[in-house]
Amino acid sequence: MSSGIVPLPAAPAVRPREDRRLADRIALSAASGRGARVRTEDVRAWLAERRRAHVFHVERIPFAELGEWRFEQGTGNLVHRSGRFFTVEGMHVVELDGPSGDGPYREWQQPVVRQPEVGILGILAKEFDGVLHFLMQAKMEPGNANLLQLSPTVQATRSNYTGAHRGTDVKLIAHFFRPDPDRVVVDVLQSEQGSWFYRKTNRNMIVETVDDVPELDDFRWLTLGQIAELLHEDDVVNMNARTVLSCLPYRDTSPGALLSDAQLLSWFTGERSRHDVCAERVPLADVRGWKRGAEAIEHEDGRYFKVVAVSVRAGNREVVSWDQPLVEPVGLGTAAFLVREIDGVPHVLVHARAEGGFLDTVELAPTVQCTPGNYTHLPPSDRPPFLDAVLDAPPSHILYQAVLSEEGGRFLNARSRYLVVEADDAPLDPPPAYTWVTPGQLTALTRHGHYVNVEARTLLACLNAAMARPRGEQRHGGGHR
C-alpha cells in the first residue's frame, strides 16, 4: 500500500560560480620564495645541469637537405610528407579601412605558418605545505636562443600527442585529457602570433592535482614567486609558459578603472567592427615581394623575416632527431606597455591591433609591438605611435625589462625586448585604437579566447606576478641580469 508520501525532488547541485579562495592561494604562491620546495638558485643550477645532460644541436641546412619536408608541386607550399604538423603557405592581406597605427601598408603578401590543429599548453598545479606550486619543464626548442628554457608541464601539438612523429609518448599528457572539472584552474583557447601564424590557436590549461606525480629529471615544482624572479632574466621562461600563466585569475584589488567593464567591451567591439581585414591563403609560389633561394625564403628588401631550414638533435625530446622549416625574424622585436596611474590606479595603454593571421580581426596588444628596424627607412609619421617614447625612456622610468624568446618550435632566434615603461605624461585621451585599461581588466579578458594577444599576455604575466607580491618586495627598475 502507498504511504501517501510523495518524495521531494532532489535539490539541484548549485555551487558558487567561482572559487573565492583561489585568488588568495595564487597571491600566496606569488609571494617571493615563500614555501618553495627548492631554492631559486637551485633552479638556475638545475637548468644549467639539464643543458649539460642532453645533446642539443641545431644546424641550418639548405632546403634540398630536408628529409621529411618538400615544396609541393603547383602551390610551392612547404609541407611535411605525412601531411601533419604544419605547412608554410602564402597569405594575402587587405585592410580595407586603412592603417590603424600599424604602418602605412593597406595590402601585402607574405609567407605564413598554417597549423590548424589545436595544441595543448598545460601546467600541473599542486599544493605543498599550503602553497600552490606549478610543475615546470626544462624543455628544448630548436628555435630558442639558448635552446633549453622553462616550459609548461606539457606543450604538444595534436600531431605530437597522437604519435604522428613516431616518437615516445608525451609525458604527463593524460592529466589534461578530460580533467576533473573541480580541478580545472584555467582552460581557454588563445591565439598565437598573428603576424607569422594563420589563425593559430592553442588550449591554455592549468589543472590542479592531488595525485602523486613522478619525480622526473626534467621537471621541477616552482611557486609563482620563483617564476616571477626568473621572468626578470633573459631567455629563461618560454613563451608557452608565459601565455598559460597570464590566464591565472589574480584578485583585482583596484577600486575602479577609467572605463567600466561595459565601456571597455563596447569600445573593443567597436574596434572589431570598424576594421575590415580580409586575409586569405594563397600558394607560397605566388607570394609577391618574396624570393626563394637555396637556403631561405626572404623579402626582396631584406626586412621582416625569413623562412629557413634546420636539422635538429635533442636528447630529451620525444623524437631525438628531425628536420624542419623555421621562421626567422630580421632584428630584435620590441613589445612594451606604457603605464600610468589614473586617480591612484595603475593603468596600461593597450592597442586594438589588427594582424593578418588573427581569427577575429583585432586583439588587444601592447602599446608598442614591432621590430624597430623595419621602420628606420620610413618618415616619422609612419612610425608606430609611442615607439620613440619607449625607445628613449630613461632607465628610471623602466619598471620591467627583459629579452624573451618567442615560440621556439616554429621560430628561430625570435626574441623581443619586453618593457613596462612609466609614462605619467602619456595622454589620457590617446589616438584611435588605443585605450587605458587596468591590469585587472586585462586579466579578466584572458578568461576568453582571442581578446588579448600573445605579446600582451607575456607582459601581463610579468605584471601580475610582480603586483601580487607584498608591496615591499616588488621589483622596480631594469631587469637584465
UniProtKB/TrEMBL annotation:
Record: residues binding dTDP-4-dehydro-6-deoxy-alpha-D-glucose 1: 69, 157-161, 240, 407-410
Chain sites annotated for binding dTDP-4-dehydro-6-deoxy-alpha-D-glucose 2: 195, 290, 353, 369-371, 374-375
Superkingdom assignment: Bacteria
GO molecular function: lyase activity
Domain called dTDP-4-dehydro-6-deoxy-alpha-D-glucopyranose 2,3-dehydratase: residue spans: 41-248, 262-463
InterPro entries named in the record: EvaA-like (IPR005212), EvaA-like_sf (IPR038153)
One Pfam family hit: Hexose_dehydrat
Gene3D superfamilies: EvaA sugar 2,3-dehydratase subunit
Name used for this protein in its record: NDP-hexose 2,3-dehydratase
